[in-house]
Amino acid sequence: MNQNNTRTKIIALTIQKIQQGQLQQLSLRNLSQQLNLTTGAFYKHFKNKDDLFYVVSEKLSHRLYAEISPAVVASLPQDPVKALLILGDQLLDYFINEPQVIDFLFFNPSVRTSYPAASPTSDKFQFLKLTKTVVAAVTRTEHTTVPEHVLFIQIWSFIQGYGILLKNKIVTKDYHLLEQTLNKLLKGGSYE
């Protein structure tokens, strides 16, 4: 098996297992067996399971970015607030339609240290980078006086919390609730 092809197959099988909700049962031995590889062959491509999960997280972030960014980027120059609403709305759809992917992408211990803004690897996660770009654009408008870092945390927290409620079928998605809440966050008052 071609080394590059083997790496791609390992990543693809891992993503498939995540989508099927089989992350807890995922082991390097299991992956290797399903691909007819030795465990040693796995280690030619990844240092360990955390390394594999990190790479898979980058791929999933890129996929999320590729699906959501066209509509967000199209709205961003003319109306950053609308771009933020589109981003939130589509991300909530992901929580509903791909809950296992969202759990892995946002709550996977292998990548949590990469998310903070100060992390040198945070820019590798394209969806996170897009979110930061949109929030920065919103803070340069007359719609808010909330500092960028505060607004990012508030919006990220609200969307993730609301997404978890949706994912667990505790509430149903309400676009007007999303819009009203984001507008209230933008009008958060002055932070000194």
**Ends apart, CA distance between termini:** 60 Å
Shape: elongated
Tell me, rounded to a whole number, the average pLDDT. Answer: 88
Q: Cα-atom Rg, whole angstroms?
A: 19 Å
**Discrete helix count:** 9
Helix content: 55-70%
Beta-strand fraction estimate: under 5%
Number of strands: 0
What composes the largest sheet?
none
Order of helices and strands: HHHHHHHHH
Low-confidence stretches: none
What is the SS-derived class?
mainly alpha
Protein architecture, described:
- The structure is a single chain.
- This protein is an all-alpha fold and 192 residues long.
- The protein contains 9 helices and no strands.
- Helix 5 packs antiparallel against helix 7.
- The longest helix is centred in the N-terminal third of the chain and has 27 residues, at 49-75.
- It starts with a helix and ends in a 6-residue tail after the last helix.
- The mean pLDDT is 88.
